[in-house]
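Reference record
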Amino acid sequence: MNHQPSADPYLPGHGDPSYTVEHYDLDLEYAVIGNRLAGRATLRIRALADGIDTLTLDLHHLKVVSVRGVRTTRYTHRGGRLVLKLAESLYAGATAEVIVTYRGVPKVVRDKVGEAGWEELEEGAIVAAQPGGAPSWFPCNDRPDAKASYRITMSAPSDYYVVANGVRTGRNRRSSQTVWTYEQREPMAPYLATVQIGQYAEHEISGCSVAVSGVVAPSLRGRFDEAFADQPRMISEFERLFGPYPFANYRAVVTTDELEIPLEAQGLSVFGSNLLGRDWESQRLIAHELAHQWFGNAVTLRQLRDIWLHEGFACYSEWLWSEASGNDTADQRARVHWGRLSELKQDIVLGDPGIHDVFDDRVYKRGALTLHAIRLASSDAKFFELARTWVHRHRYGNVTTGDFEALVREVCGRPVADLLDAWVYDEALPELPPA
């Protein structure tokens, strides 16, 4: 069997399609001084194919101390791939446990589509793992369709605040260290797993239908409250349009460092201190990251080529929020961006943009325009039925552009599906239907 499998041509050297992970239990200890991480990861795996005699896990830069659980004859760890040679083959449906102990100084993972993963901040650390950065801090089957539940336990100095995905189920101080435990019960892709470590304080944002909080340095609290004043209304509007918020809670983390762009993880978003404002640029990013909880996190692509299914919906949600908050209508925003795109080079296919253009802004904006074209070609009622059905039917699962095309045909009819085809598979930018 090939010891160097890949699950996605856009991310060569990541993911093993022969098995999935049902649950991760991550027991971690972090030393802020020196940026050192030690961990024990327990993975409950399930075979998807017959006769599996090797398992390949992704783990970059960090040193493997031991591998236990499933019986192995040997293991090797080279080039970010931890390859286990099994003593006995696994067959489809069989489960096993893999326990990896590891340590070292985590670093970002560099791939052809960019770099992602664990980054040291001036005061703490941040994990932004999209698309291939999860192996920078834990051994995993790094593919978005290997969704699992998680338990993340992190020991860190007590003067630091630790946030991870899901519901906090423990916070225990032990001398100079505090042990934090979080449980992410809804299935989550590895790239959406995160920990955020900083000198933060957490406070509740009242008036929301779910538990929502801000995690921010006290010195930034006033600016945060002003920037996120519309968070309750924003959540309410997106629930009206897309259906119930899909997770148990939502956190907005703000680092004291400046960040070029905000980052989404499952159940939380991360903003730099430079992104706190009431201006449209700041507010659209707040809306964009919130929308990813429905589009990207609850409903997740199967392969990176279909990134427009995440970013198109998130960008279109910006325009929907603009309209709902009394600013420019979605149609006005769409026509401005159509004009800008029409002046740029037309050499990207939305449904398969290529490794080097997968995060190009043209993919984001053309994805949003595609959704607006569907809305104009059908009706508001049909379009938002489409959006709600998309989330409800595929919640906690994985999707392809083909799945979306099928649902457009089902909800909006064949003429609209034919219109979608040109937006997704032609390089030339189609005309927007009349308002």
